[in-house]
Design brief:
single chain; alpha+beta; Alpha-Beta Plaits; 2 domains; 5-stranded mixed sheet; 8 helices; 7 strands; about 60% helix; elongated; binds guanosine-5'-triphosphate; Nucleotide_cyclase; transmembrane helix; transmembrane; Diguanylate_Cyclase
């Protein structure tokens, strides 16, 4: 039903239902008159047809509309369950789910992939200085920026307040470094205007790799990337570091 409504559209569906209702009304009326042994009354047929033509479009317009609203709400709920409202990226749960899928796939095909954890720098200071709304706007802006920077096959999500995770399939250390460098430069060049003030922000990144022969699970790999991120913060921020296990 859902697919039919989406494919046919509300107006066409209402016209189809009306035509079917009119035909049914005439058919049933003829059947009823035959069963009762009456002569075919054209006035009764005419009345049945008119009432079907009046009632069917109104009722079906209302019901199809109601059904479409339910479909829209269902789609919205699915989105809310998967995506972070502020950035439009995967939320933590969806990110971890997709990461596990990539992990299984990479193992099966004997491939490596990169895991990056990125954290916006001094975000508390930004919130304190410009207000929570400005912090939210930066997160929104960052979500847009990320979407323009990653490939369709990459997986990225907001895994904490101002922390983001990336899975780059079939990516080695060299290419992960290039990706991190490109991302940091793009972020650095970005500025957003809030109440006439130009605000700039930076980020720090931790990188690790998943090898097909290693037994590290996604959680272990995220911890490794987190530790590398911590090193990047200690190294002065606005930079990336690679986890000890792969550097
Ligand atoms: N505006 C806004 N702030 C958030 C959101 N989620 C987390 N934060 C804030 O992000 C800040 C994170 O602060 P810290 O963990 O101290 O980190 P930081 O200030 O970025 O410092 P470093 O990570 O060490 O560079 C806190 O003030 C949180 O309140 C959000 O959705 N919106």
């Amino acid at each position: 039903m859902k697919r039919i409504i989406q494919k046919v559209g509300r107006i066409r569906l209402v016209i189809i239902i009306t035509l079917v209702a009119a035909l049914l009304a005439i058919g049933l009326n003829i059947l009823l008159q035959l069963i009762q042994g009456n002569e075919l009354s054209y006035t009764a047929l005419y009345r049945a047809l008119i009432s079907a033509i009046i009632i069917a479009p109104l009722l079906s317009w209302y019901l199809v509309g109601l059904f479409m609203r339910v479909i829209e709400l269902e789609q919205k709920m699915q989105e809310w369950a998967m995506f972070d409202q502020l950035t439009g990226l995967f939320n933590r749960r969806a990110f971890l789910h997709r990461a596990e899928q990539e992990y299984t796939l990479a193992k099966r095909h004997n491939e490596s992939f990169a895991i990056l954890v990125l954290d916006l720098d001094h975000f508390k200071t930004i919130n304190d200085k410009y207000g929570h709304k400005a912090g939210d706007l930066i997160l929104e802006d960052f979500g847009q920026l990320i979407k323009s920077q990653v490939r369709q096959s990459d997986i990225c999500g907001r895994i904490g307040g101002e922390e983001f995770g990336f899975i780059l399939p079939r990516t080695d250390l060299n290419n992960s470094r290039l990706f991190a460098e490109k991302l940091l430069t793009t972020i650095e060049q970005r500025s957003i205007s809030i109440e006439g003030k130009e605000i700039k922000y930076t980020a720090s990144i931790g990188i690790t790799l998943s090898h097909p022969y290693s037994n590290y699970k996604i959680n272990n790999l995220l911890h490794q990337a987190d530790r590398a991120l911590y090193k990047a913060k200690s190294a002065g921020r606005n930079c990336y570091q690679v986890a000890n296990a792969v550097s």
